[in-house]
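pasting for ref. prot 1 ->
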Amino acid sequence: MKLRIDIDRTRSIGLSDQITAQVSRMIFEGRIATGMKLPSCRLLARDIGVSINTVIAAYQTLQDEQLITARPRSGFFVRLGPGVHPGLIAQAPAPEKKPARIVQKLNLARRADGIDTIFRPQNWFAQPYPFVCNQINENDFPVAEWRECARLAMNRKDLKIWSSDGHYADSPDLIRQVNQRILPSRGIAADPGSTLITLGSQNGLYLISFLFGGRDRVAAMEDPGYPDARKILTANFGSVRFQPVDAEGLVVDDRLRGVDLVFVTPNRQFPTTVTMSPARRRALLDAAEEHDFYIVEDDYECDVDYRQVPPLSLRAQDDRGRVIYLGSLSKGLSPGLRLGYLNASPDFVAAARDSRGMILRHPPFILQQTAAAFVDLGYYDRLLRRLKRDHEQRWRIANAALADSLPELQVVSEFGGTNFLLTDPQRQLQADALARAALARGIVIEAVAPCYSCRAEGAHRFRIGVSSIGQDRIRPGLALLADLLAERRGAGPYSAPPTGAGLPASATSAASRKKPCTILENGISRNSTITAAR
């Protein structure tokens, strides 16, 4: 470490005493931690411009005061003196200062503190049965291929590309790969000016809502839907409407009249896994034109969809420029890389690029260049083919195991995905409590109440994912989960029945009922009627 010591040769205090006083103050104030190694006498003398004997004298005094200790052939280290604690010693009484309340200065309209997100333990990967959603198995990551692409990206020829400030631009190589190799598979014909690289879909959604939002603006989203999208929309719009989901996806009706922006996951609805029907897609595009709103399409799980002919994106069917498309490399490559892309009309992309530039200029070029090489060399396509085969096998194993182990629960999961939504039809299951009990046994499942505008609607539902768990652990993990459920039932009622009707418990059922829910408009609660499919 390097010590900041100021030597004043005009003072009457000796140089070694100045060093002693300043080092001891750093120790007392906790700025030098216990056990930390101090600079050598020679190095410190050179840094502050004094003789080595002066530093030796200062260190000897600090040793005599039992503040530091010398270890043979190792150096000098900070130690505790008898009965003292760094940071607590020699604290002179100071006048009481009232800390500033920074939150009083915050724009509360930009906060969404009351909205929960789906809980996932930080160490989920260390658990024996990680049924988490939308993550990868570390064994699936192509380490050797990614390392090769990183080496190629860091060659001397490209040094100027990734080491300099690209202002607001993106890597032309990655834009080209996205436009020529990725978007066409979703039916989207793109030119360079219509694509923006983002730090994942969530970053793209924030840019969009920042540009569209305002106190007088209204957004709409699926209910149930992505909790982080609800936080983003709530922070940027005056009000958010919650539009129900049934067996065909987002319900399209007059409740969309008067909105400015609609967020939707048509390919794989989050969290019900429902795919929006062709008729509903057309109805949504027609409504956007009729009511003059725009659509944000989060093409969730599109890259690993293993159906033989997945439906085209909503953007591919849009002939009026109403759809803003969000995609990412997260589900196929790695969520931690935080690489995504936004595709829309060039005028909107230009505005989004300018807004992104005010925040972060551009995602790191070295990351963009590495990803571009990964796609260009065919590694990405090869990885997706392998993942699709693997995900299909995992889905089939889990689908059969759920029928065997948990027949009393309703299960929703459309073929082509990696997630399952489980519902207790008796409405007695408290999913939050079950998730905690399961985690204690090494099973990670995810309660989905945060996905619902009324938490009670999702209190008896949870989801499992099979994208990150080994095939050999799916059946044993679900069997253990079944044993846990049986134990909790045997002990008596395992929750008080929550109030409120349920939202989609089956992808093939569309019976509806109404339930009053609370919607926040400009921070004020009001009652509204939400139609729920059960």
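and prot 2 ->
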Amino acid sequence: METAAIHLPARRYTVLDSLVIAGRCAPIAAFFYGFLDLAWAALTPVTTLVAARLIDAVIQTVRSQAPLQEVYRYLALLAGLTAFGWLRSALHNLADLRLVLALRARYRTALTAKRTRLEYALLEMPENWDLIRRVAANPEGGRLKETFYHLVDLAAFVLKVVGLLALLASAVWWAPLLVLAVGGLALVTGVRSGKALYQAERQVAGHDRRLDYLNDVLLGRDAAAERTLFGASGMVIGMLRTSFHAALGVRLSARWRWYVKAYAGNLTNQVIWVLLMLALLPSLQTGAVSIGLFIALTQAFTRFDIVWGFMDTVNGLAADAEFFKDLTTFLALPEEAPYSAAPSTAAPGKAAPGKADAACGARAALVAPPASTPTLLPTGPARIELRDVCFRYPGTERTILDGLSLTLEAGKRYALVGANGCGKTTVTRLLTRLYAAESGCILVNGCDLKDISAAELRSLISVVYQDFARYSLSLRDNVFLGQEAADDEQVFERAGLGPLIARLPQGVDTPLGKLAGDGVDISGGEWQRVAMARSLARPAALRILDEPTAALDPVAESELYASFESLTGDATTLLITHRLGATKTADVILVLDGGRIVESGSHAALMRAGQLYARMYESQRYWYETNGS
């Protein structure tokens, strides 16, 4: 079975694409699934006619003592058709299994790959998470496969109905018209109900997301200690119950309306069946319809629920059509572009604030990279310049950066400080191009950041985040994550991991966390050193440390900053912190307030100035002096 992910380009998708995608993932299984269903549907009127002839042959034999050859012949035909039904059921299940496995290998992988390429800014929007949840939940057994089955079921349904109505029309010409009229009503009802049911799923997406989170809090390991200590389980269960009932109410309301209409249709189906049988009685009396055909049609229409079955299939397809609208939207979401920045994150219909630097110009549209693009990587430390940068997060009114301008000279160490929420981490996100500035520009060694490829950007910048990830992998894999080979074993010592490695049972190959049976838990401070090592393992012209000591005690923090210069080498360094004891090691301290740099200089110079930095430092002086900083 081919396992490469299929290509899902950004375009408009419809329910018919379920046939295309299923066929591309598992052509043989998809073909046989559809062929077996359609063949069985086409044989339904044939089976009805053979059953009618068998009954007539038996009656004729009983009445006139005729030879049994006709009975044997039709009995053999009926037995063969029944055997085909059994074989079809077995092969049908096998084709279904093969299709599910192929969708898991190729379709799920394609959706996952798309998710990994999405612009970072999109992942912080709840509506996008709800969209992803609807599209990517159970890809191999969810909507796409169901749509494929619904289309096959609809085609099979039409074949069955056409064949049975042809038999019925041979006896009562107007009877099929009655069935078709009621079928039209079922079509309208099914379409409306299907849309309503899927819309209900859209409405409860936020509740479902909250339920997933509360389940993790209630059952997960990360919150277990605090949940137990504070006796929070009852409160979390109450919140979970509230969200569950809110989602349940929306779903029940939509389902209730559907079932009322569906059972009304089912009642109509029973009435139609009685009317059809009554309509056949005169033809039975005159001999236009044989006893066998009358009994066979009665059984066929009793087993085959025309109105309910049609309404249920159409209802499913109407909901499927809404799903494919979501799939179209998801696949059209912008991805990280290797040679251009993400589109502006300004809220729709609102002008970007601030004053754009004329030297930077407007952002260019996304374009394909040229055939030959010279490298923009600096040979040494990077010089970074932000010119009149403005930014606010999508969906918010508050301007975080308002005309921010600053320059980081190559090879120097800088500290960016300010109150919580002033935009320090936002600067990091702009430098790493997780977000794009609404106006202004960012230059790296004179080149616009948006013109640097993703690969070059990863080689240019190394970051230690405050909310760094903790991977349940070996220590070695945690440090050299994303690298093909670990070629700098000394990085462990440089990051102060020697004592940790000494007590790990398998050294650097020891699994961290509790995912593996032999995994080892380590402290928050040790995890932070692992994150530091991960950053140091990559050569970089610009190193950004975003609150790198948040989980370290004062002594460990002092030791870390004492070796700050050796850790960062000759790279340009930007330290982002609100713990001002660390800023003394920086060549230049930048104070961010109101979206702009309001002060800059050395620690001594800023203390003499007696402005914002001095007031912030004085508020922390006792803490640092007490702890020997």
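The CA atoms of residues 124 and 340 lie 20 Å apart.
The domain at 17-331 is CATH 1.20.1560.10 (ABC transporter transmembrane region fold).
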